[in-house]
């Protein structure tokens, strides 16, 4: 029986092996990623469907899986984007996040915890430029559809870059000196990132994760206007007053391979990735 670490590795290996790169220009590569994600989800006890949407007369797809809870009155969304920026394999950004998403689905299937709420897992397209921060982001499409359907979303968790860690001293960089005073300077922790006003939810996720993993889990809340806090798909749920946070290894503040051809599978730490997913799963079923 494979363990989480092996399954995560297989997911990242499969996604980063797609050629040409799975960016918005390469529709066949994106479709191959969708087929893989869909195939993995269809092995599990959940409802699976594609969510197609059109941008510039081209069809892109989100991939959605729904695990039903005791009450369908509320839903928790977990998401990650599968597209990449430019011509690069995107191991950390964001095959690692998609692997985390798929592994979360497998753990829900495997352990069949009693769920209080529906859990919807979504693999998004078009997170990266030139669509970032636009209404064409796959997560913007998804969030808008939920709002139109009057689905009550209890919370949202975004997996965004969860695979790069370093035990080297001073491997963690900071955008300003004030933050540097409050966080470790060795880049071997994971961060729960939320905007100002979400402190209670951000800290709840952090504390629940800490109970279910041995990796160091930190949290930070910053104003939405502080660019780094909204650098992924969770941003599109804020406009609907949904508590939405990002699980992140701090991206370019730690990983020198960000948006580079060197963002390859051999730079990732799969033991720590598995620990991150264990923490998120433990938090998710208790939110």
UniProtKB/TrEMBL annotation:
Q: Which residues form the Peptidase M28 domain?
A: 62-277
InterPro entries xrefs: M28_fam (IPR045175), Peptidase_M28 (IPR007484)
Q: Which Gene3D superfamilies match?
A: Zn peptidases (3.40.630.10)
Where are the membrane-spanning stretches?
Answer: none
SUPFAM superfamilies linked to this entry: Zn-dependent exopeptidases
UniProt name for this protein: Peptidase M28 domain-containing protein
Classification lineage: Bacteria, Pseudomonadati, Bacteroidota, Cytophagia, Cytophagales
């Amino acid at each position: 029986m494979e363990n989480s670490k092996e399954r995560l590795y297989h997911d990242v290996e499969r996604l980063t092996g797609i050629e040409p790169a799975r960016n918005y220009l390469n529709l066949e590569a994106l479709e191959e990623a969708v087929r893989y994600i869909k195939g993995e989800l269809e092995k599990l006890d959940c409802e699976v469907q594609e969510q197609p949407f059109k941008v510039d007369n081209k069809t892109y797809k989100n991939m959605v899986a729904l695990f039903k809870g005791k009450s369908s009155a509320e839903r928790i969304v977990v998401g990650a984007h599968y597209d990449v920026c430019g011509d690069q394999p995107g191991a950390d950004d964001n095959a690692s996040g998609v692997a985390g998403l798929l592994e979360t689905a497998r753990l829900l299937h495997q352990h069949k915890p009693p769920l209080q709420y529906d859990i919807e897992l979504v693999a998004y397209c078009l997170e990266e430029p030139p669509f970032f921060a636009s209404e064409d982001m796959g997560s913007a499409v998804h969030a808008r559809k939920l709002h139109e359907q009057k689905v009550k979303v209890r919370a949202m968790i975004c997996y965004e870059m969860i695979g790069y860690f370093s035990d080297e001293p001073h491997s963690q960089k900071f955008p300003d000196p004030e933050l540097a005073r409050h966080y470790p300077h060795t880049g071997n922790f994971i961060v729960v990132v939320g905007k100002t006003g979400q402190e209670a939810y951000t800290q709840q996720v952090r504390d629940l994760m800490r109970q279910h993993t041995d990796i160091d889990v930190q949290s930070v809340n910053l104003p939405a206007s502080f660019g780094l806090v909204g650098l992924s798909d969770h941003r599109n749920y804020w406009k609907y007053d949904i508590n939405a946070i990002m699980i992140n290894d701090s991206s370019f503040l730690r990983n020198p391979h960000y948006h580079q051809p060197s963002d390859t599978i051999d730079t990732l730490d799969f033991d720590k990735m598995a620990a991150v997913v264990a923490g998120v799963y433990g938090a998710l079923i208790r939110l």
